[in-house]
Structures are given as structure tokens and as C-alpha cells.
Design brief:
The complex is a heterodimer of chains A (435) and B (263). Chain A has 435 residues and is an alpha/beta fold. Chain A has 15 helices and 14 strands. Chain B contains eight helices and 14 strands. The longest helix of chain B has 16 residues, at 219-234. Classes of the chains: A alpha/beta (435), B alpha/beta (263). Chain A binds chain B through residues 146, 149-150, 154-157, 211, 216-217, 222, 224, 348-355, 373-374, 376-377, 379-381, 383-386, 392, and chain B through 17, 20-26, 29-30, 33, 49, 68-71, 74, 139-141, 166, 168, 211-213, 216-217, 247-248, 250-251, 253-254.
């Protein structure tokens, strides 16, 4: 029963860490617990009745987790059962982050007094976590795009790892898969678990081919897929004419309400709503909770700076950058601050900016300021996409001020940062750090 | 100096759909824009799976990027059938840039970790071995000293300069006698992390591990490819009109400063 000691130790570390302003302890306690007892996660969950929801995918994990939590917690008001939910801290999505959230939410006798645990899981960690949590109740797989190739490797490598990890799941687990992403949909083919699919409503959604498209070839036989329509990147209504592998017929596409802009958020919302329905949340409760949903930090989060509005769209890989640009163009954005960093959480290779379709937006925005550790690389990208009005500033604080000054009263400054850049720019704007 | 002229280039982009994982498209954009901004007519021919050999004959400059393993296998099968045509163009001196997987493919063979040997196109005198998943990939920012050694137009190789990029490869490449390295490693790993070489030059073809992509931050190298292609096509020495490279230089300087390399 020395896990009891690990939980106490972990809690103390968090207190000390918070006291000395060393961070909020989203990974340390778990790191220590796991290094003393490598079975810590398994031990804590062994006798627990908490339902486990894992969320994986390149883009949308944090938003989907927050959507699910909002719906499940909201519903507790209308049901006699009290639904208590906890989750790992956003971004703390490796094993140590999961272990930390268990440290923080267990009682000292290793009991979890919760109904649901929501864990967002890093792409490479999904196989490892399935080793610790053998048959989670739900696994949502959102999508698979090229992202941080220096860290994750190629899209096919990740797909293969997921395939191997998921093969062993039993029917106790419900797999919730994106039907429009062929690689993800393929995961359901050989699974013994209960498989359900989500997608988006295909009406009026045909778009031109985007350059950053990773899975246009059949995951089953390798032949080129035929798309009846493309929603973005390689997501769409696809079929393989060679082996007959095709888009799943029964796909959930209808949330009663969408709290966030952008096609990508229709996917996140539909995945969350499908999960809520499987847990018997009423349509009414789903809709009401989504209407009061507040975005997660940096994911379309709105900040008020004096009399100006700032909205942050985390843009961390070609698929998410393309979607952000499209979404803010639809919102008639005028003022733009683009921030490119190349630290470990961003990926050290910035080649991917050349896979973003900037060319489609070269005369769309009025004021553009470019900054970050790799400001000039991004400036260069805009130059070659024939953008005329942009300013490149190396210093982030200075660039943020310039961009805010150029934004007229009652207008919005749209900030598109990579991950570490998002944390930094938020800190500059709000005066405090969150992670 | 030339501007708004009779000159026209056709760039052949080999397998844009399959071999384009690491922002390789940036190289094509740079070649295209640097021609357009000088008034040089430019057309990009996309040579995708099952392309026609007549299309290859029309090209004045070739480019091929890197890919995921699965895609690379598909390409390699297709290209094996077209090997002789491609070899003839390369031997004849068509300028070309071949990145990462494409660079490896042009060599004699690729030896996988399990010791399976995959034959290459055998156009460049080099081979690549992969030490397996337990040995680290060579990843990071990289800088080399590039000596523009070539025989066609001596005027263009009168000085050496620094090229910067980002490398990310498991395979280790070893050069044979009939190719020259593209440059000498200043910082980073290069071909194999051992012998201080990076990339290869054969006739007017250049192979390299540089992503980044290579051309945006190394505009002289982009211009070298354009110049050789024009000189080869029109049979006389050509001086390209200068372009403003100030953002290019600042972007290059960011990496040079990081690596502590002087420009």
C-alpha cells in the first residue's frame, strides 16, 4: 500500500512547486510516482469504477476533452447521479501527466471518487497507456496529420503503432473513430471492440485539394483513394475502388449546436456529442451545455485587452494552420499576428510552414505582423506567397504591441501561434503564465 | 542582365503527390518565384505516378523531394521502369535537386537494418545503410560550406558560401569516387555523421539531406540551379538580375547564430 505514500508525496510536491512558482505540478508528481512504482497507474485504477475516456489525434484533443467535460458536468444538475469528472492537465499528455492527474485526484487511500476520467493522450503515448489501462471504456480518435516529423516520425509510423495497440482491445471498449479520415477509419476494421464513427455533415462542403494531405492512399491495399468530396486535408468522403474499402456508412454528424467556428471544430463537437449520447445524456442537456461552453486556453480563446478584442487560434501544423486561416478569413479578419517558434513542443523543424496554403490568403488581411523565434522564416514564407503588407519583428512583446496598436478600437486581433508561442503570447497579454 | 525576356524554363517536379512530406514544395515555390520576379517564363510540370517519358524530355530542371517509406516504395517501383531515361538526362547534365529519400534512391542501394538490400537507380556513386531503430536518427539544424565546384560554367564557382538547413534521416550515406560532396559540415551530421561530408554533386545534379526547405534560406543556391538550367538550355553564359535577399539573409542568420557558425 505504498501508493498511499506516493500520493502524499506527489501532493506535497505540488504544494511546494506552486508555492515557489515552479509550475502547477502537471507532470512532476506523476513522474516521481512512476519512477518509484512503474505500475502506479494500473494500481490506482485497478479497483476503481471510474469510466475512462481516452482522446487521441493530432489536432483537437484539448478542445474535445473540454467539450466532453462541459457536457458531462452540466448534466449532473439534471440527473440524480452526480457526475464527477476529472482530466489530465492540457498538454500533460504523456504517462507522467496521466499519473499526475491520478495523484491529484485520488484520496490518500488510493480511491478515485469520480465517475469519469478524461485523458488526452499524446500520439506516441497511446500504445503505452493502453498497456497500463487495458480496456478503457471509450477511446476517441480524432484524426492523424503530419505534425512534428522530427519528434513523431511519419504519419504511417504512428498509424502502425495505433493499429498494433488497438488490435488487442475487447468489446468492453467503445472505439469512436473519425469516419472521414481513412487511416483512422481503418483502425475500426479489425477491432474486436465496439466501433462507432463520427464525421461532419457533408452538405456544401466540397473544397479544393489542399497540399498538406497525408493519407490519400488506401490504408488497406495502398491504391489511390477516390474522393467524392474533400472537407480539408485528407478528410472527406472517400472510397477505394481497388479493394472496396469505403467510408463507413453509419456516421454521426449532427450536434444540436456548435459552440466554436471552423470545420475542424465540427469534428471535435460531433465526437464529444456522440460520446455524450452513448452515456445517455439527453439532447436538451447537450445543447444547453454547449451553449455555455468556454473555449480552452489558446483554442479560439477570447481575451479583452483594453477596448480591443484578441482571439488566439493555436496553429501548430499544416492542417491546423490552414483551418485557422480559413476560419478567420470567414470571420472577416483584418488584423493578424503570426508567431512561429521552434522549441521542443513546437517541433524543431519549421519546414512545415511551406505546406500551409498561404497563397490562398495573400490579399485577405490588412495588417499582418510576424514574430517568434523563427520570425524571418515565416516572413520568407509570406514573401514567396506574395503577401505585400506584413512586418517582421523578432521580439515577441514588441510585435504584440505593434499588432495591438494597429488594431482599431472594437476590432479583433487574431493571433495564430505555435504551441510554446501561444503560452508566451498569452503570458504577455494576461501578465500571468498558465503552465 | 536579363529581365522580361525570351527566356523560359520548364521545371519537372518528380512525384509531387508522393514525395512531398517535409515542406519540399517550398523549393519549387522558390525556383518558380525567383524566375517570375526576373521575367523568366516558368512552367512546373508535375510528374506524378505513371508519368510520360515525353514530359521528362521537355524539362530543363528537375526536382524531387523526400517521402514516407510506404510512398517511397511505390515511387521506386515506378522510377525503376524509367531509370534509363532519367539517367540519360542526368548524364547529359540537366540540373537537378534531389532531397533526402530522392537522394538515397539515386544511389546504388539502400541497406535496411535487417540487412535487406533495396537496389537504387544506380545513377549516383553512393550507397546508404540504415543502422536500425535502436540507433538515433540524425536530427537537427545543420550548416555546410558549399564550394560550387562544377565544370560547365567556371564563372559561377568563384566563391564558397554557407548553406543552412534542417536534417532528419535514419540512413547513413557513403560517397563513392565518382561523386563530390555538396559541402563540408560546419555543424550537424551530414551524410553519415562520420566523415564530415554532406550531400553529393554529380554533373549538374545535387543530392542533399537538407530540409528546411533548402532553397528559401539559400537563395544563391536556388539561383545557381536557375542559371545552370538557362545556360544549358540557351548555350551561352547568363547573369541573373539581382533580387532583394534581405529576409532570406536574416532567416539564414537566425540559424547560423544558433549554430555559432560565421557567414
Amino acid at each position: 500500500m505504498f501508493n498511499f505514500f506516493l500520493i502524499l508525496l506527489g501532493r506535497s510536491i505540488v504544494l511546494v512547486s506552486k508555492f515557489f512558482n515552479l509550475g502547477n505540478g502537471s507532470t512532476w508528481p506523476g513522474h516521481i510516482a512512476l519512477s518509484i512504482n512503474k505500475n502506479f497507474i494500473r494500481d490506482v485504477l485497478r479497483n476503481s469504477k471510474v469510466k475512462i475516456i481516452l482522446i487521441a489525434g493530432t489536432n483537437g484533443k484539448t478542445t474535445t476533452a473540454k467539450l466532453i467535460r462541459t457536457i458531462l458536468e452540466y448534466d449532473k444538475k439534471s440527473l440524480p447521479a452526480h457526475w464527477r469528472v476529472f482530466q489530465n492537465a492540457a498538454g500533460a499528455n504523456l504517462l507522467n501527466g496521466i499519473a499526475s492527474s491520478l495523484v491529484l485526484h485520488s484520496t490518500v487511500v488510493c480511491k478515485l471518487n469520480y465517475d469519469y476520467a478524461i485523458f488526452e493522450i499524446d500520439e506516441n503515448t497511446l500504445p503505452l497507456i493502453l498497456h497500463e489501462i487495458n480496456n478503457p471504456d471509450f477511446i476517441i480518435i480524432l484524426n492523424l496529420f503530419r505534425d512534428q516529423l522530427d519528434r513523431y516520425g511519419e504519419v504511417n509510423t504512428i498509424a502502425k503503432k495505433w493499429e498494433d495497440a488497438i488490435r488487442h482491445l475487447l468489446s468492453k471498449t467503445t472505439l469512436i473513430l473519425n469516419a472521414d479520415d481513412p487511416q483512422v477509419a481503418f483502425l475500426g476494421e479489425k477491432s474486436k471492440s465496439n466501433v462507432l464513427y463520427f464525421g461532419i455533415n457533408p452538405a456544401n462542403k466540397t473544397e479544393k485539394n489542399q497540399h498538406a494531405s497525408d493519407s490519400n492512399y488506401c490504408p488497406n491495399c495502398g491504391e489511390r483513394l477516390i474522393y467524392n468530396s474533400i472537407y480539408f486535408s485528407h478528410l472527406g468522403d472517400w472510397i477505394c475502388k481497388n479493394c472496396g474499402f469505403e467510408h463507413p456508412k453509419k456516421t454521426f454528424t449532427q450536434s444540436p449546436f456548435y459552440p466554436l467556428s471552423g470545420t475542424y471544430n465540427e469534428y471535435n463537437t460531433n465526437a464529444a456529442v456522440l460520446l455524450a449520447k452513448l452515456n445517455n445524456v439527453s439532447n436538451r442537456a447537450i445543447e444547453q451545455s454547449l451553449r455555455v461552453f468556454k473555449p480552452a486556453f489558446g483554442r479560439q480563446e477570447i481575451l479583452k485587452i483594453n477596448d480591443k478584442k484578441v482571439q488566439i487560434f493555436l496553429s501548430k501544423n499544416p492542417a491546423s494552420f490552414n483551418e485557422s486561416l480559413k476560419t478567420i478569413a470567414n470571420l472577416n479578419a483584418n488584423n493578424l499576428l503570426l508567431v512561429l517558434n521552434d522549441r521542443i513542443p513546437d517541433g524543431r523543424d519549421v519546414s512545415w510552414i511551406w505546406d500551409v496554403d498561404f497563397e490562398d490568403f495573400s490579399s485577405q488581411f490588412k495588417n499582418i505582423t510576424v514574430t517568434g523565434d523563427r520570425a524571418f522564416d515565416l516572413g520568407l514564407r509570406l514573401k514567396y506567397a506574395e503577401f505585400k503588407n506584413f512586418q517582421t519583428k523578432k521580439n515577441l512583446a514588441e510585435a504584440t504591441n505593434v499588432a495591438l496598436e494597429k488594431t482599431l478600437k472594437n476590432e479583433t486581433l487574431y493571433i495564430l501561434p505555435t504551441y510554446s508561442a501561444m503560452l508566451e503570447v498569452r503570458k504577455i497579454l494576461t501578465g500571468k503564465s498558465i503552465l | 542582365m536579363i529581365h522580361n525576356t525570351k527566356y523560359k524554363l520548364t521545371i519537372g517536379w518528380l512525384y509531387p503527390e508522393l514525395m512531398s512530406t517535409y515542406g519540399d514544395r517550398g523549393n519549387i515555390i522558390v525556383l518558380q518565384k525567383r524566375c517570375e520576379w526576373r521575367g523568366i517564363g516558368v512552367e512546373v510540370l508535375k510528374l506524378d505516378l505513371h508519368f510520360n517519358l515525353n514530359q521528362l524530355a521537355q524539362c530543363d530542371l528537375l526536382f524531387m523531394g523526400g517521402a514516407q517509406d510506404k510512398q517511397q516504395k511505390i515511387v521506386s517501383e515506378d522510377l525503376m521502369k524509367k531509370r534509363n531515361a532519367l539517367q540519360n538526362r542526368i548524364e547529359d547534365g540537366i540540373p537537378g535537386l534531389y532531397i533526402c529519400g530522392a537522394y538515397q534512391l539515386l544511389g546504388r542501394y539502400y541497406k535496411e537494418a535487417e540487412r535487406t538490400i533495396i537496389p537504387g537507380l544506380n545513377i549516383f556513386d553512393l550507397y546508404t545503410g540504415n543502422p536500425g531503430l535502436n540507433v538515433s536518427r540524425l536530427i537537427g539544424n545543420v550548416a555546410i560550406e558549399f564550394q560550387g565546384v562544377n565544370s560547365y560554367s567556371p564563372s559561377r564557382c568563384n566563391h564558397s558560401y554557407t548553406l543552412v538547413g534542417f536534417e532528419n534521416h535514419g540512413g547513413r550515406t557513403y560517397l563513392g569516387k565518382n561523386v563530390k560532396p555538396l559541402g563540408k559540415i560546419l555543424k550537424g551530421f551530414g551524410n553519415n555523421g562520420e566523415d564530415g561530408t554532406e550531400g553529393a554533386i554529380y554533373k549538374n545534379s545535387f543530392g542533399t539531406y537538407f530540409h528546411g526547405p533548402i532553397l528559401p534560406k539559400n537563395p544563391e543556391f536556388a539561383d545557381l540551379l536557375i542559371k545552370v538550367a538557362l545556360e544549358k538550355k540557351y548555350g551561352s553564359p547568363i547573369d541573373l538580375s539581382p533580387l532583394d535577399n534581405s529576409i532570406e539573409m536574416q532567416a539564414r542568420k537566425t540559424i547560423a547564430n544558433r549554430l555559432n557558425v560565421e557567414l
